[in-house]
């Protein structure tokens, strides 16, 4: 961290307002640090067990994990460019394309994603703590032990998230990356004896190989893609005059591939040792671990789980506070944390947690993918030119500005996203939460992601060609798509509600 960076020892007070250039002292490396360090935890590792649980062989599982992470990271990388250009997070930045009121879509996506992943992190890390302490003390952990461990993880997560992003970066650099990397490397030694590279898999969860493999691959891609809404929380502290777009995208890409692909592959590796118990991954992991390694697994749940949950909680509290003026970032963060903790207890003690997690990831991918593609097309169209002050209109309880469009909504992007999301959901099979009416048209093959992604991008691109946006939303060079420039009037005058 360079001199002059905001302190990690004080509570971060900044919300989604534009970060001044003088405070943008982070480097692209810090994005890699957060993506890598915060994902060396059970909430990502457990997804590596899904291919084995679905019946895939070891090598088929490796292929599904790598393909999913590569696809997810390729889509994630461009989302890192908005923060440096706008000085704010991606949800607020989306106001340039969806309208300053249409940015509410991005906020809802962030909230949906964060609640799910915070709950998954607290659940998996809490189970690891309960099982680990239980084995070390020679007792069988019961529901009360689990509940206490969930509460412990949640409390520490809230403390770090309320303190802010700068403390999180320090934790990643000085603790998470070296310590958790060492723990995972030791895990290869601990479970190496029971590993079989020739593991052939079992009965396919979806009836045949390709449907099962594609489903597994899409789940892995959705884990990486979920950061598309959050990556601007960190890149807004990067000065675009000092760091190039390719360097920012490269760090984001490799952070996605290594930060999530590595822990998933580790999860698949250890799961081969107890494939028959993959449905109860965390307890099975603890019970099959050598005694000398149990302490490392407990540490992985406590330290790493805290950092991963903090990423989502910090970002969602940041954006929610901008929509509810009466709440500051700390209050919004606390409120969201309470909801996430409630979901943990419901998921573990009232629902089937694994099936709910699987369904959540499928739904998340369907509704997030078209939003990300629309944002990427919009960035290319504007050539990365944004009017930062006009993006903050909604946050300041004002109206007007370049991105006001029609009552704060740009119908081109909003209609394209809505149509794509609805079409994708119609093809989506995500039991027990949801099954669309056309989910079985392709013989059980899940087309929801492809339909949503392609339709969202195509509809938005066509709308820009047929109905170009007003000229005043562009930079000096004018629009980058379309054959004619819209003759727009001057931007609406900004005024209070």
From TrEMBL:
It is found in: Membrane. It holds the Pfam family Transp_cyt_pur. InterPro entries: Pur-cyt_permease, Pur-cyt_permease_Fcy2/21/22. Keywords: Membrane, Transmembrane, Transmembrane helix, Transport. It is a multi-pass membrane protein. Its main location: membrane. The chain crosses the membrane at residues 31-52, 58-83, 104-124, 144-163, 175-192, 212-232, 253-276, 292-314, 334-354, 360-380, 415-435, 447-467. Belongs to the purine-cytosine permease (2.A.39) family. This is Cytosine permease. It comes from Pseudomonas piscis.
């Amino acid at each position: 961290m360079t001199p002059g960076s905001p302190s990690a020892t004080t509570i971060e007070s900044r919300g989604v307002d534009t970060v001044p250039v003088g405070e943008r002292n982070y480097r692209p490396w810090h994005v890699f640090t957060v993506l890598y360090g915060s994902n060396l935890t059970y909430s990502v590792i457990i997804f590596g067990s899904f291919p084995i649980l679905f019946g895939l062989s070891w090598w088929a599982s490796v292929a599904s994990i790598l393909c999913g992470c590569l696809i997810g990271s390729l889509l994630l990388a461009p989302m890192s460019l908005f923060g440096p250009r706008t000085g704010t997070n991606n949800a607020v930045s989306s106001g340039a394309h969806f309208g300053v009121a249409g940015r509410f879509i991005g906020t809802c996506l962030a909230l949906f994603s964060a609640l799910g992943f915070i709950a998954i992190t607290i659940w998996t890390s809490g189970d690891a703590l309960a099982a680990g302490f239980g084995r070390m003390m020679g007792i069988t952990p019961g529901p009360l032990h689990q509940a206490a461990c969930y509460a412990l993880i949640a409390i520490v997560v809230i403390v770090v998230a309320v303190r802010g992003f700068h403390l999180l970066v320090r934790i990643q650099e000085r603790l998470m990356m070296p310590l958790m990397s060492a723990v995972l490397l030791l895990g290869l030694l601990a479970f190496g004896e029971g590993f079989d590279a020739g593991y052939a898999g079992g009965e396919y969860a979806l009836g045949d190989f390709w449907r099962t493999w594609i489903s597994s691959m899409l789940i892995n891609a959705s884990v990486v893609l979920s950061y598309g809404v959050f990556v601007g929380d960190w890149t807004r502290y990067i000065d675009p005059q000092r760091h190039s777009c390719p360097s920012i995208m490269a760090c984001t890409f490799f952070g996605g591939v290594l930060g999530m692909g590595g822990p998933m592959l580790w999860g698949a590796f250890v799961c081969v040792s107890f494939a028959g118990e993959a449905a109860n991954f965390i307890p099975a992991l603890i019970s099959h671990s050598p005694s000398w390694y149990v302490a490392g697994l407990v540490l992985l749940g406590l330290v790493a789980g805290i950092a991963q949950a903090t990423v989502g909680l910090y970002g969602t509290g940041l954006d929610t506070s901008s929509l509810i003026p009466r709440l500051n970032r700390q209050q919004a963060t606390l409120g969201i944390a309470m909801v996430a903790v409630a979901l943990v207890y419901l998921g573990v003690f009232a629902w089937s947690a694994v099936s709910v997690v699987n369904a959540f990831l499928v739904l998340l991918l369907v509704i997030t993918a078209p939003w990300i593609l629309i944002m990427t097309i919009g960035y290319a169209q504007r050539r990365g030119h944004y009017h930062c002050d006009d993006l903050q209109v909604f946050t300041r309880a004002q109206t007007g500005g370049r991105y006001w469009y029609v009552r704060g909504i740009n119908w081109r992007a909003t209609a394209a996203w809505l149509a794509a999301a609805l079409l994708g959901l119609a093809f989506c099979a995500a039991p027990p939460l949801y099954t669309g009416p056309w989910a079985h048209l392709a013989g059980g093959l899940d087309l929801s992601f492809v339909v949503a992604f392609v339709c969202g991008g195509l509809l938005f691109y066509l709308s820009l060609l047929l109905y170009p946006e007003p000229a005043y939303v562009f930079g000096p060079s004018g629009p980058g798509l379309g054959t004619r420039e819209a003759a727009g009037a001057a931007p609406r005058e900004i005024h209070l509600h």
